[in-house]
Amino acid sequence: MPRTPLPKAVFAMDPVHLPLLFPEPVMARLRQTADIDPGLVVQDLADPRAAAALADAEVLVTGWGCPHLDAAALTAAPALRAVLHAAGSVRSLVGEALWRHGVSVSSAADANAVPVAEYTLAMILLAGKDAFAHRERFRATHTHPTPAQTAATGNLGRRVGVIGASRVGRRLLDLLRPYDLQALLYDPHVTAADAAALGAEPLPLDELLRRSDIVSLHAPDLPETRHMLDRRRLALIRDGGVLINTSRGALVDHDALTGELVSGRLAAVLDVTDPEPPPADSPLYTLPNVFLTPHIAGSLGNELERLGRTVVSELERLAAGLPPAHAVRYDDLARVA
């Protein structure tokens, strides 16, 4: 019997990401599944050098740096039937024209959630030990802490408030299960039974903030979630509480948060800010009660390979006539990242 031709695919992303997303073993597996040229990575759909490949392309393998996919993408790639995104959100990537045309869209957001949840778990445990404050004190005094200075330290029974049962939020709740921590959850789309299955106590947002020792943000960046932690809600967090944000900076009123941090009433672990990065004169860079990192919680370095593997698995399903395992549905875009 004649061999079924491989689906024709084209890379569309910043080429700098290609070697880490698709190292040699993953690239070899990809090339067994699709007719794709590793030497052609499109950043401009109007580039004449890519015209011939795009004209036949059934699949776009996209990533960070991919151009916006709108009606022009369908003009350049009239045979397009799937976009497989080797990164997280596709909300700003895929335009209305592709959804209307019925192009299948898949994302590696589940895979990208893994390192974010791992980072967050590490920060929760370190914050519970008050590791950041002890580090600053040790660096300044070169002495071990007194019993009085460690009285409020420890992770036994500490209450962790998770805002958002997103991919990251759910994975984090799963990672929290082995620890002697109390998980609280706010998500308006999650029932009490679903929260219990996730191992968390469901609470209204204000009540979660009042009861939590550590608050971790995992909600999507939507118009209705902008500044969901405003001045009033930040004031509900108990004195000495810790805010962890690995989601989006816009979820927090940063002027109000900065005031709380400068006063020393709260501490924070911030992998994202608004704006990002903070202005050069921001006190967030130097406050001893702020652990600030440059948006590193998501996939970096060798973790990118996990995203590439996800795309290859999706392409294998596509080649076998199966639907994607990580499909993005248009109707979900209004409430997901």
From TrEMBL:
It comes from the Bacteria. Keywords: NAD, Oxidoreductase. The keyword NAD applies. Residues 122-297 form the D-isomer specific 2-hydroxyacid dehydrogenase NAD-binding domain. CDD domains: 2-Hacid_dh_8. InterPro entries: D-isomer_2-hydroxyacid_DH, D-isomer_2_OHA_DH_cat_dom, D-isomer_DH_CS, D-isomer_DH_NAD-bd, NAD(P)-bd_dom_sf. Residues 49-328 form the D-isomer specific 2-hydroxyacid dehydrogenase catalytic domain. Gene3D superfamilies: NAD(P)-binding Rossmann-like Domain. Belongs to the D-isomer specific 2-hydroxyacid dehydrogenase family. This is Hydroxyacid dehydrogenase. It comes from Streptomyces flavalbus.
